[in-house]
Every structure is written in structure tokens, then in C-alpha cells.
Amino acid sequence: MKKQTVFSVVIATLLAGCQQAPTVHHPASPAPVMAPQAACQHGEVQMQTTLWFGLSRKHASPISATDWQTFINKDVTPRFKDGLSVYDAKGQWMGDDGRLARENSKALMLIHPADNESDQKIEQLRQIYKQRFQQDSVMRVDNKVCVDF
Length: 149
What we know:
The chain is of the alpha+beta class. The longest helix is centred in the C-terminal third of the chain and has 17 residues, at 116-132. It has one domain: Alpha-Beta Plaits (2-Layer Sandwich). Helices cover 29% and strands 32% of the residues. The protein is built from 3 helices and 6 strands. The N and C termini lie far apart (47 Å). The strands form 2 sheets. The protein has a 4-stranded antiparallel sheet, with helices on one face.
């Protein structure tokens, strides 16, 4: 084998071990389906879900800091009492009209078990926020992570 080919095979083999198991949401299943993952070297396997909430509204004033904190206090915290993190964010995307759209946002990060109960609570939060604040969507990103305290 050529030196370059051997090097490529070695690198590909090493990188294959670094890939994270993908999360797949099937329409027929309320819970994400996770591919198997090796045990953690430290801590335990948990899910990390980040939800992205836009703070702008089409036909109303932006969502206020008070409205956001009320949502956290009354809707999020009772569902995730073990803890959560909130980050200020600035989102942007290309609109259907070809124009760049920007808005202030909040990112909510949750660490939780990979189970149906947590999944249902997260989906409830997404629906509550969309309905209460007239939002088209709340983006959800899931990853398996190793957690140690």
C-alpha cells in the first residue's frame, strides 16, 4: 500500500470512533430514536437538548424580559427542576424572500435522561411557546453527552 493510502485508512478509522450517535425523530414515535453509544469514560450518558427561542413577533412587540422570565418560571422550571441554562443569542437566517433576517433569541439548554417523559416535556415547552408568543417554530437540537459532576 502507498504511504498516503495507509495514512488515510488510519485517520478514517480513528475518526470513526469520534462520531456521535445520531438522533432521529420519527413521526410515528414521540421519542427520539438513538443509535447505540459506548459508555462514558467519566460520568454517565445523558441527553443534551438545546431549544432556540426567537424573541421577535410579526405583528406585535418583541417578547419582553418579563414575559421570558415568566415562561421560564412557570413553564420550564416545573418540568426541569434539576436545572437548566439560558443563554442570550442572536439568530439569523435567509428568509423565503431572499433577504437576511436577524433577531434576538434565547437558547435553553437542558440535560436530561433519554426517555419519553423528558421528550414529552420538551415538546410541551415548544408548543406552549409557539402558541403563547405567536412563533412559527422553536428549533430543537439533541445530542448524547457524557455528564459528570
